[in-house]
Design brief:
Helices cover about 50% and strands about 10% of the residues. The chain is of the alpha/beta class. It has a 7-stranded mixed beta sheet with strand order 6-5-4-7-8-10-9. The protein has a 3-stranded antiparallel beta sheet with strand order 1-3-2. The longest helix has 23 residues. Bound molecules: S-adenosylmethionine (SAM). GO terms for molecular function: O-methyltransferase activity.
Length: about 425
């Protein structure tokens, strides 16, 4: 089948790349408008992909895309074996890496070769020496690096270590995302007995409960997910802290499905937010993990946070245990995990809690912070949507879809706020 689509040439795409670079990424003429710069980065990714497509042709490009899972595997494999940590600030031969990690040297050299092509690590002395050194890219796979994404890589990638038994979890065992996505085909088919379909992650690991209960039951998984979320948000949503007037919210802010309080950890580091108070509401196990996290925080921050265990999907408000009558309710990265009907149930429970006390605050506000799908959304948004689907049948909704669900739950949407981030913020008030 052929289509008569206009196909730009490599030269026209390269010219656009040059133009975009000159107007946004030229150090001698920096772009001042940070939102323009943010959007230019997304556009640059698209153009670079288009350039590659045109130059390579559809056959080679498609095979490359299909095989990119092997590059992801190389990244996960090497990170799970803690190769960047073993190398540290020194150099290491493949034999030394093999000895320290316990992995066969051939496996290591093949995975390292894959990553070297992406400029991760440096091969000291040139091609084939198999003596490696960290560089600015492999450095962020190290534990303790200020920009580390080690846990995020572990969370997304699959290694079935010792038949996936959680041995030496922190260093060796990586799974969830990648293993789950390999069960998407099965999860996408109707279940034979017409029961609700289990997400791919359930099929992959063989459990019935929700992924959140499953993870929080195994402390190391819960802890890694918390760290992975922090690392990913720092990369994709770091600007959310700066690009929204959090300090204008009326405290206490009830964070529905607040997890371990990753957002609060970031917000309370900023001087202008120090007067905010939060109540983190989540399932009991996650609240236990959250409390542990906050015991390690400075008292000035920890004293601003309290905790409320419950279940936002429970059939009655009493059973949900959502704190009632508070001025602000925040819900971040929760709704994407649930079907439309479940989203409406959650938001209706929240609305009921908001209005549960007679004479509610007239300024009571719902703040929904979610990744929304747009025409211009980056590759990260699309790949993360695959992760969400695999982990909890999650959906990345468009702005129109999200607003509709908020309204269907009994709210009036006042504003949709766009930021230099994959997330947007929807502000709404309950209709009485
Ligand atoms: C993707 S995490 C988002 C965490 C947090 N809002 C953030 O942005 O870092 C979703 C959260 O919803 C919580 N959750 C799932 N089911 C829940 C339920 N039935 N009641 C309350 N919280 C729930 C999970 O435990 C998890 O912490």
């Amino acid at each position: 089948m052929t289509t008569n689509q206009f196909v730009p040439t490599p030269v026209t795409i390269a010219e656009q790349i040059l133009q975009l670079s000159k107007s946004n990424f030229d150090a001698s003429n920096p772009q001042d408008d940070l939102l323009v710069l943010y959007n230019a980065k997304i556009r640059m990714q698209e153009l670079c992909d288009s350039l590659l497509q045109t130059v390579l042709g559809r056959l080679e490009y498609t095979v490359l895309l299909a095989e990119s899972c092997q590059e992801s595997s190389a990244l996960g494999f090497v990170t799970a074996l803690t190769v960047p940590d073993i190398i540290g600030d020194e150099t290491a031969t493949v034999a030394e890496l093999s000895k320290a990690s316990g992995a066969d040297a051939r496996f290591l050299s093949i995975a390292m070769s894959c990553l070297l092509k992406h400029n991760y690590f440096e091969e000291v002395g040139g091609f084939g020496t198999q003596v490696y050194k960290n560089n600015h890219l492999s450095d962020i796979l190290r534990e303790g690096h200020s920009e580390s994404v080690k846990d995020a890589v572990g969370f997304m990638y699959a290694i079935f270590y010792k038949h996936n038994s959680p041995v030496d979890h922190d260093t060796n065992s990586c799974d969830e995302g990648f293993k789950a996505t390999s069960y998407l085909l099965e999860a996408s088919k109707p279940s034979p007995n017409e029961e609700p379909r289990l997400p791919a992650v359930n099929l992959a690991f063989g459990f019935d409960k929700t992924v959140f209960e499953w993870m929080s039951d195994q402390e190391w998984r819960g802890r890694r997910m918390g760290k992975a979320m922090q690392q990913l948000h720092r990369m994709a949503n770091g600007n959310v802290v700066a690009d929204y007037a959090w300090n204008q919210l009326v405290s206490p802010v009830v964070d529905i499905g607040g997890g371990i309080g990753s957002l609060e950890l970031a917000l309370l580091k900023e001087e202008q937010n120090k007067a905010l108070k939060f109540t983190i509401f989540d399932i009991p196990k996650t609240i236990e993990n959250a409390k542990k996290t906050w015991t390690t925080q400075p008292e000035t921050a920890a004293s601003r946070v309290s905790f409320a265990p419950g279940n936002f999907l429970a059939p009655t408000l009493d059973e949900t245990c959502i704190p009632r009558g508070q001025p602000t309710y925040l819900i971040r990265h929760v709704l994407h995990d649930w079907t439309d009907d479940q989203v409406v149930s959650i938001l209706r429970n929240v609305r009921e809690a908001m209005l549960a006390i007679p004479g509610p605050d007239p300024n009571v506000k719902l703040v929904v912070c979610e990744m929304l799908l747009r025409d211009t959304s980056s590759r990260f948004v699309r790949t993360t949507s695959m992760q969400l689907l695999a982990l909890n049948n999650g959906v990345t909704r468009t702005e129109v879809e999200m607003v509709k669900l908020v309204e269907k739950s009994g709210f009036r949407v006042n504003r949709v706020h766009h930021m230099r981030a994959v997330d947007s913020i929807i502000e709404a008030i309950p209709e009485s």
